[in-house]
Amino acid sequence: MKPIKSTLFNMIAALLAVATLSAAALGYVYQITKDPIAQAKDQKTLDAIREVVNAFDNNPFAEKTTVTTPDGKHRLELYPARENGTITSVAIKTFSDNGFGGKIELIIGMLMDGTITGYKVIEQKETPGLGTKIAEKKFADQFIGLNSYQNEFKLTKDGGEIDAVTGATISSKAVIDAVEKAIVTYKKFNAGATGHEE
What we know:
By secondary structure, this protein is of the alpha+beta class. Helix content is about 35%, strand content about 25%. The relative contact order is 0.12.
């Protein structure tokens, strides 16, 4: 068999064929994996909601609502937790783009009076052994019991009452940024319900 001549046209044609086949393969893989990936992400969110809110007898995920942040730049997902039909707490999916490794996503739980019941990190790319400690109890538990109407959310070095993760001030501040984003959005959602005026 006569070998194919190595010309510019033949090389471009070969590259196009490889690119087309690769794109088709990637498209096929995406189609068969997108639903399982989405379901796994939803389950991770639901598990986080269970960890940060009080007991509930509804399905907070089914009642998800989207609330625009007061500055109009972002939309956060809010999940109401009900007992006997009454909303007793909410979980808010919030984020910060200011992490050392980029975007940090977390679910924060709040009672209707604005008291934080906890948070759970669901996505982060922080430095292992340093920034990743924002997900550990020692740091996260400092937020439990703080009230969005009464407490300032700052690190102790900035005059607040939250100790930063040693060697990970940027990651620690990113969590506070995400929490504050959730708080101002919660206040917008809950305006007037508790007699607080913002």
